[in-house]
Specification:
The structure is a single chain. The protein is an alpha/beta fold. It is built from 6 helices and 8 strands. It is globular, with a radius of gyration of 16 Å.
Length: 213
């Protein structure tokens, strides 16, 4: 189901992948260079409903409007905040998440919106080649249980560059889009299955810990 939600930045779209007996909603925003067709977002939307998690893939207004360049972080945050009531409507606790720029939006806004946890896919810890321009404070400042899933070869931050204590799942050979080279000893499908399995197990753990209840 696709739901259109008005925001101050224009209409956003939520693509719902409903779980038959949902216990959580996982809301995922896309990055600045692409939309909800990203392989990790699609893999999670396909895999998680069977594990009791409704997935909501959120298209930011700039993508809905057909623009090529993402607006300023404040505009992204305002749109995400405006559509949050629609994400809460099913009545389950909501985990905020996203990939790349979408992960940054989730980290900045989750606590204030009442999310129970944050899923950061391909968190852009720094611009490529500029490790001194760290965004670690954005990640550690989320103030909620946070899982980072990061490609081992991500130029925006490799797993070993993250602050100590970060809960992180590395994707072997993965780049910023979790693409795996053909010559790697892990296939693309296998890499994505590892990603979705790790996220599902983490979400199960949140449930066991009583998050949102």
């Amino acid at each position: 189901m696709i739901e259109t939600v008005p925001t101050p930045a224009g209409d956003a779209r939520i693509h719902w992948y409903a779980a038959p007996r949902a216990r959580l909603v996982l809301a995922l925003g896309h990055g600045a260079g692409g939309g909800i067709e990203a392989r990790d977002l699609q893999a999670l939307a396909a895999a998680l409903p069977a594990r009791g998690v409704t997935v909501a893939l959120v298209e930011q207004p700039w993508r809905v409007a057909g623009k090529k360049v993402a607006p300023a972080p404040k505009t992204l945050d305002a749109a995400w905040t405006a559509l949050w009531p629609a994400l809460r409507k099913p009545g389950q606790p909501v985990v905020a998440g996203g990939r790349s720029a979408g992960a940054r939006v989730a980290c900045r806004t989750a606590a204030g919106l009442g999310a129970v946890a944050v899923l950061a896919l391909s968190f852009p810890l720094h611009p490529p080649g500029k490790p001194e321009k760290s965004r670690a404070e954005e990640l550690t400042g989320a103030g909620l249980p946070t899982l980072v899933v990061q490609g081992a070869k991500d130029p925006f931050g490799r797993p070993e560059e993250f602050p100590p204590g970060t809960r992180l799942v590395p994707v072997p050979y993965g780049d910023h889009g979790f693409a795996v080279p053909k010559k790697a000893d892990v296939g693309q499908e296998e890499a994505l299955a590892g990603l979705t399995g790790a996220v599902a197990d983490w979400l199960d753990g949140l449930d066991d810990a009583g998050a949102g209840h």
